Amino acid sequence: MFFHFVKVNFTFLLETKVTSKAAQTPTTSPNRLGNELPQTERKDLPAEVAIRLSEAIQAGEFAVGDRLPSERLLGEQYAVSRAVVREALSQLKSEGLVISRAGSGVFVTERNQRQAYRMQYVAIDEKESLELVMELLITIEVAATRFAAMRRTPEDLKSIRRALVSMEYAIINDRLGDDEDFSFHQAIVDATHNPHFQALSEHLEHSVRRLIRQARNNTKSRHADHVAAVQEEHEAIYSAISAGDSHLAATLAETHLSNSAKRLNIYLKE
Asked: Residue 109 carries which DSSP code?
């Protein structure tokens, strides 16, 4: 009887201790960025992540010059993919809230460096607006490719080549390689060593390239030949940049982007 009484009381104390500890333990680790996005707020994940980060920056939780957490950490924080985080950061860059520094990360900018220019949001079904934005994309990237061929360093070529190889690996594994495609074009823009090209490219990434990826994802199974063609065009551009042939590099970039516009029209018709 005494043994039974002791056993019951020990069990009660143990359960009370465990319950009390569980009540004191937060379900997620607190930090200034907030918890993962509620399911009711996950319709436009990149926009929601961008809003959360923008609010933290505007509230002064990140000071000017502070480096934001890595894409991996932000993805874990909000329970989203790195692609979602990357698009959210691209939106913040286009708004002038942050700036990326090659090899260092993404940093909060000085308030007086933030640009007033904003590109109107373009939906995938707004054909005329999309065509106008594509014209701008082609103009900017052709010029950037020309300067990249003139100014590229050995490190720049390594970055461009790395993205190209990663893209090839993605295609072999039956993936579109969207992240790798972004890295390829961004590496070319970085090779201009011109921060204004970089800022415009990031703005266009959020405004235009996401639409190309969206349309391409919708028709992936029917356009494997297009994926191979894109990779061949990338290879040719890299070879011209590596050779320092600025005229050829610009010509190939214009051909590639014009073909991208044509492919986009094909994707949108289906």
From this structure: P
pLDDT for 15 beyond 70? no
Tokens of 41: 């707020």
Query: Between these two residues, 100 and 238, which has the higher pLDDT value?
Result: 238
- Residue numbers of the domain that contains 65: 39-113
**Do 256 and 166 share a structural domain?**
yes
Instruction: Report the amino acid identity of residue 151.
Output: R
Name the DSSP class of 209.
I
CA distance 228 to 232: 6
Is residue 121, in this structure, part of any structural domain at all?
no
Residue 212, C-beta contacts closer than 8 angstroms, at least 6 positions apart: 260, 264, 267
| 142 and 79 assigned to the same domain | no
- Return the CA Rg of the chain: 24
Q: Which two tokens stand for residue 171?
A: 């295609």
7 lies in some domain: no
**What are 78-132's pLDDT values in tens digits?**
899 988 898 888 888 877 788 888 778 899 887 655 554 555 555 555 677 777 8
CATH of the domain at 207: 1.20.120.530
pLDDT of 214 over the 80 cut: no
Q: How many CA atoms lie within 13 A of 56 on its CB side?
A: 20
Q: Are residues 252 and 132 in the same domain?
A: yes
**Do 80 and 206 fall within a single domain?**
no
Residue keyed to tokens 């061949």: 232
Q: Clarify whether residues 134 and 210 are in a common domain.
A: yes
- Residues with Cβ < 8 Å from 257, sequence gap 6 or more? 134, 137, 138, 141, 142
